[in-house]
Amino acid sequence: MNRKKMQRQLSAYLDHELNEAEKLTVERHLSKCQESAETFENLQQNSQLMSGLRQPTPPGVWEGVQSRIEEEKKGSWKSRFTVPVRGWFLHPIPVVSIVVLIAVFAFSLFTFDVDQNSLEDPLDFYLIAHSEQTTGFWLMADDFSSQESSISTDFTVSDESQAYLETYFGY
Q: Which of 34, 116, 138, 162 could share a disulfide with 157, CB 3.0–4.6 Å?
């Protein structure tokens, strides 16, 4: 029997962990091998010394441990905040997408300058946009030789909105 296996067997024999067949094998080996017998005696002495070092557990230890566990479960305000924040980083895709959306929104606020004067009157904005489209449509008409203007020159209305309306509807 090799040395490592025998040492494991001796330790198991000392702790009464072997079945009857293994126990008989170890006892036979101890009677034949002087070195293994000395090793077993050393293990017995160490075991006796170690058992003398054991001390009984003081009363109230378990109650103290239980109270500390309950205090940690309650936690402080800091632990209540840091646990959810740590949880966010376990899901990087939503976090990254939110950061990208915020960055795009901030970039668009600073990059695209909207002319506030053109948005003051929504009707003017609407009419300007549609008059630009309709003039392009009229330029593409079949009759290119016509020199008539699509806008009548005898307007008496001072409001530009009326001119846009008439241009748009073709009055």
A: 162
